[in-house]
Amino acid sequence: MIIVPIKEGENIDRALKKLKRKFEKTGILKELRERQKFTKPSIIRREQVIKARYVQKLRDDSES
Question: Helix H segments across the chain?
Fold first, then answer.
């Protein structure tokens, strides 16, 4: 459970912003979206390889 302490006289909008930030950091929503569908391990590996190639290409381009 996420708890956001609110100081006396603190704005509600600021407290909501803190709550949203904490919620994003925990990764709960991301995990829920991933669990909605099953992804084969081979597809996960393929996506990781594609991402690694992309990042490597960006690094190679920046070094040149």
Answer: 12-26, 28-35, 41-63
pLDDT reading at 63 higher than 90: no
Q: What is the pLDDT of residues 29-52, one digit of tens each?
A: 889 998 999 999 999 999 999 999
CB 19 within 8 A of CB 4: yes
At 24, give phi and psi (nearest 5°).
-65, -40
CA atoms within 13 A on the CB side of 53: 6
> Residue 38: what pLDDT?
92
Distance of CA 63 to the CA centre of its chain: 28
- Other Cβ atoms closer than 10 A to 23: 13
